[in-house]
Write a structure and sequence with these properties.
With 197 residues, the chain is of the alpha+beta class. It folds into 2 domains: 5-78; 90-188, Alpha-Beta Plaits, CATH 3.30.70.60. The protein has helices spanning 5-29, 33-44, 46-81, 90-108, 140-151, and strands spanning 111-117, 121-123, 127-138, 157-167, 174-185. Strands 1, 2, 3, 4 and 5 form a 5-stranded antiparallel sheet that branches. Strand 2 and strand 3 form a beta hairpin.
C-alpha cells in the first residue's frame, strides 16, 4: 500500500500540532518556581505569621502610651532646661552667674569682697558647668538667707563648696568662701584636646 504525500503531510502536521498542544498545556498549567516557593513558605509559616501579627498588634496598642510618655518627658525636659544659663560663651555665662549673685547679695546686705572665675567643665554628656568662687563678709543669718535665695532662683544654680571662718566678736561678721555653679549648654564648654595637640 502506497501512502500518498498528502497523508504523510497530514500526519506530520497532526504530530506537530500534538507537540505544540502539549507544550501550550504544559506552559499554562506548569507552576512557576517563584510562586511555588512563596506558597510553600506561606503554608509553612502560618503559625509564625500569626505570632508576628500578635506581636505587631501589641506594639501598635503601646504606641499611643509611649508617644504620650515621650511628650511628657520632652515637656519636663523643656521646663528644666529653661533653668540653663544661656549665653554665647562660657565667660558670658559666668558673668551672668556673677550678676545674679551680686543682685541676691545686695538684697541680703552681704558684701562681696572678691571673685575668682572657675574653669568651665562638662557636666554629663549634654550640659556644661560654669563656676565662680566668691569671698563674702556677712552675719551667719545673711549667708543662710543668701543660700536660700540662690536655691529659689529659676536658673539651675547651686553651691558646690562653702568654707566659713570665725566671726568677729563685736560685729559678728563671718567670712565665707563659696563656690557657686550653674548649668549651661554643652556647646559652651571647650573640647579637651590630647597631649599632642
Amino acid at each position: 500500500m502506497k501512502v500518498s504525500r498528502d497523508s504523510k503531510r497530514d500526519r506530520r502536521a497532526l504530530a506537530l500540532l500534538g507537540v505544540v498542544a502539549i507544550l501550550v498545556m504544559a506552559y499554562m498549567y506548569w507552576p512557576e518556581s517563584d510562586s511555588t516557593t512563596v506558597v510553600a513558605a506561606g503554608a509553612d509559616s502560618i503559625p509564625v505569621a500569626e505570632r508576628r501579627l500578635s506581636r505587631m498588634r501589641q506594639l501598635a496598642v503601646a504606641v499611643p502610651a509611649r508617644q504620650q510618655a515621650l511628650q511628657e518627658a520632652a515637656g519636663e525636659l523643656g521646663k528644666r532646661e529653661k533653668g540653663l544659663i544661656l549665653a554665647d560663651t562660657a565667660n558670658q555665662a559666668q558673668a551672668r552667674l556673677l550678676e545674679i549673685l551680686r543682685r541676691l547679695a545686695r538684697a541680703q546686705g552681704v558684701e562681696i569682697r572678691g571673685v575668682e572665675l572657675g574653669q568651665p567643665k562638662p557636666f554629663g554628656d549634654d550640659y556644661g558647668e560654669v563656676a565662680i568662687t566668691v569671698m563674702l563678709g556677712a552675719r551667719i543669718e545673711q549667708i543662710v538667707n543668701l543660700l536660700a535665695d540662690l536655691q529659689s532662683q529659676p536658673e539651675l544654680i547651686g553651691t558646690s563648696d562653702i568654707q566659713l571662718t570665725g566671726a568677729s566678736e563685736k560685729q559678728k561678721i563671718t567670712s565665707a568662701r563659696m563656690t557657686i555653679s550653674a548649668l549651661v549648654p554643652r556647646k559652651l564648654i571647650p573640647e579637651k584636646k590630647g597631649p599632642f595637640f
